[in-house]
Amino acid sequence: MQVLLQTLIGGITFGAVYALVAMGFSIVYRTMGLVNFAHGSVVMIGAYAASTFYMATRLPFAVAMVVAIVVTGLIGLIIERFLRPLENKDFTLMLIGTIGFGAVLEALAILIWGATGHAVPNPVATEPIDLGGVRIPTYSLLVIGVAALATALLALFLQRTKTGAAMQAVAMDHEAATACGIHVGRSNATAFAIGACLAAVAGSLIGPMLYVNPTMGGTLGIKGFAAAMLGGFGSMPGAIVGGMAFGLLDAFAAGNFQEYSELVTFVVFAVVVMIRPMGIFGEATVNRA
Amino acid sequence: MRWLLGIAAFAAAWLLPYALGGYSMHVVDVAIIFAVLAIGLGLTMGVAGQINLAQVAFFGVGAYAVAILTTGAGLGFWTASVLALVAAVVAGLLAGIPALRMQSHYLGIVTLGLALAFINWVTNAHVAGRAEGISDIPVPPMFGIDLSSAYLFYYVELIVFVVFLALALFVTHSPLGRRLRAMRDDDLAAGALGAEIPLLRMTAFVLSGLYGGVAGVLYAGLIRFVAPETFSIGNMFLLLAMVIIGGRSSIVGCVVGALALAFVREALLDVSAFAQLGYGVIVVLVVVFFPKGLAGLLSRRKAGGRARLGPFQEYGTAAADEGTVLEVEGVTKRFRGLVALEDITLSVPAGQIRGIVGPNGSGKTTLFNVVSGFYSPTRGRVRLHGRDVTNLAPYRLSLRGVARTFQNLRLFEDLSVRENVLLGLDRTRTAWIWRYLATPWAVARYSRGLNRSAEEIIARFGLQEVADAVPRALPYGIQRRVEIARAMAMSPSLLLLDEPAAGLNGEEVRQLAEIVRSIRGSGVTVVVIEHNMGLVMSLCDHVTVLSSGRVIADGPPDEVAVDPDVVAAYLGDSMAAPTESEVEHAEG
């Protein structure tokens, strides 16, 4: 029971990060129909930006996070500007274009920070809280709290602000949105920047949990993407549930299959999405002839 | 000309080792392996449109199978190679199963996940040598020729490469390749033309596995050492870059891209971060500015601008079969809460032109989708020539003689008009594809026969001038006619036309009526959905009126037009039915 609860806590912590990554994928996908395979690399850049700033300046971790958000937000805007000609077009091309961007970001990270990577000290170095024998690291609480806050802010933005409503409109029908006087390009850029900011939050949170290195984006991106798909691509609640589900799957696979956890995780994922390709919250699409 | 170029390239490749030093020879050997992999990826991704990011894992399965079977099980190199090919093909089949349920980026992420699972396995499994890999793979024996020499191994590779390049080119230019490309462009329309989509997708993955396996065997024979990093996701993206830069739908383009990037990679080996930066930038630039890659730069586009339609040549008359061709019995179709069709019953006798009319949203196209197998009805039966065909897949219905056109035109945009017609003509089952390996000459003969029939149909429908153009370059009216020609290429017994007159001008509508009458005269039964009441009145023998998913009237056109229910359904206009101009407004 204790082991189970302990695994659960680890799973939820990673799940919160996957959920942030998945939301980043989803907000870009629903707004502009672009599957951003570079997202994982943006997370990696976010992790580097936050950890480098944090370790160099000794300022509070929150400040480092803001710096990371600014850096990745700019990167997001640049990527969007480059790939704008491909929006709402050939999926294969977009996919490959964003993979190309991911390779560029990874190469830049190697050139700037070196190929080896670095460990990040825990910003809340206190004893874990002991709850009936289950040890909850304080950092896990921080991760879950920040992820929840980011989710709440995003939901408020999408539902309560005019820009957010415009983005929802573009997501539903970009042509009709244009006809209503919404600047689709600006809306897309906003979506991309928000996605990149979420990536920075995810990256800075995961830094102290993993070893920050240039290739971490690949696995993180794939897992976040898989989480988004598990929840239902483009659905925000789906991204959160999918992220949690994937984090738990990951944690239990690691607990029971040790070194083969990745194998088990991805085979289980493949089987689940074969049974339900539209994910948990996705709409069944009807082929219209 | 192409043959000469090919022979010259082969001769140059044969003489190449005389000009190279030992290390360069090794680099060329590795580049050829990448080229084989790129051909496989080009076939699955470029030709068949299946986003397969597990190609590098198939490569790994091939190489690791040879390594494990030779060093672990003590088999000979070539025996192990045959088994390794089988293993790679099986891996392809397994990784292809998700393709039956999902496509595009979904498939991409699942195959990528499976590739990660493979890497995870080889890095940890004792039998695969863990992170250190497996060394001491034996030198492949070859009648006393020492294949440990990079020079001599080159010739083995060259021959294998040429054989598999030829196979890939043959497949792309054959009826199978055409179906794969059609599936890539529009799998629904391809299914309606008789292409077995699930089997075709699996075929694409089998090819992917086969080419991966061949490359893996060559790699094991050349390097004689396997380790996980060769099959990493990074190399998968390198392979992807090769295929994109070369031009994914051109096999030769893939080869050129692979060779070029393999050499660049070698040249920049010491500054690999810069090399990666370079590929990344090139891939982004190619995708944004030259989506067709190097191959797209070289190929010229045929302009279809001012092409005109020739006259339609009438079909000879033939007696229609006796009896009832189509029977729809109590068909109901619900989409969750929405009832699209409610208890529809109608029967169409042989040789009739049946009109289906009704306001927008009355369920006409849904009815077609049920009859042609796109939807399964919630209740009720559909019979064709008295045989129950409810729930049959579109391709089966197509092979049983149901042809259809689509309301919003579903021509294959990247295929020429001639190829669109050829797709309709190809009536083979996909199970026929074993012949591609066993008796390729029979395939070639069959293909020539198809080409002759295509010329007949192109001439009959007056499409000679536009035969080599791609549909999107053509005016709308011509595209409509191409779609009917493609449907008639299937020699159907039942032709379903979904708003064939939409977007046509008066003269084109007159020609359409003439074509449809001639088609009926040749013994084909026609069911037509149409809003143009003038056309319906003059063309149809019998009209069925749908409203809100129910049949509200059924009878000869002049009786139906004055039926009070029909008048009410069309919003109680002062006219019995909408005029043509109203219909035009209602379009779209």
Folded structure, characterized:
The complex is a heterodimer of chains A (289) and B (588). With 289 residues, chain A is mostly helical. Chain A has one domain: ABC transporter involved in vitamin B12 uptake, BtuC (Orthogonal Bundle), CATH 1.10.3470. Chain A has helices spanning 2-32, 39-57, 61-83, 91-113, 138-160, 162-172, 174-179, 184-206, 216-231, 236-257, 261-275, and strands at 129-131, 134-136. Chain A has a two-stranded antiparallel sheet. The longest helix of chain A is centred in the N-terminal third of the chain and has 31 residues, at 2-32. Chain A is globular and about 60 Å long. Chain A starts with a helix and ends in a 14-residue tail after the last helix. Chain B is of the alpha/beta class and 588 residues long. Chain B has two domains: 27-232, no CATH class; 324-586, Rossmann fold. Chain B contains 24 helices and ten strands. Chain B has helices spanning 2-15, 22-47, 55-72, 77-96, 104-124, 150-173, 175-185, 187-192, 197-223, 233-246, 251-267, 272-289, 293-298, 364-371, 394-399, 417-425, 435-438, 440-460, 476-489, 506-521, 533-539, 557-561, 564-569, 580-586, and strands at 324-335, 338-349, 353-357, 379-384, 387-388, 402-404, 494-498, 525-529, 542-547, 550-555. In chain B, the strands form two sheets. Chain B has a six-stranded mixed β-sheet, sandwiched between helices. In chain B, strands 2-1-4-5 form a four-stranded antiparallel β-sheet, covered by helices on one side. The relative contact order of chain B is 0.11. The mean pLDDT of chain B is 87. The interface between A and B is large, with 50 and 54 residues. Chain A: One of its GO terms (cellular component) is plasma membrane. Chain A: One of its GO terms (molecular function) is transmembrane transporter activity.
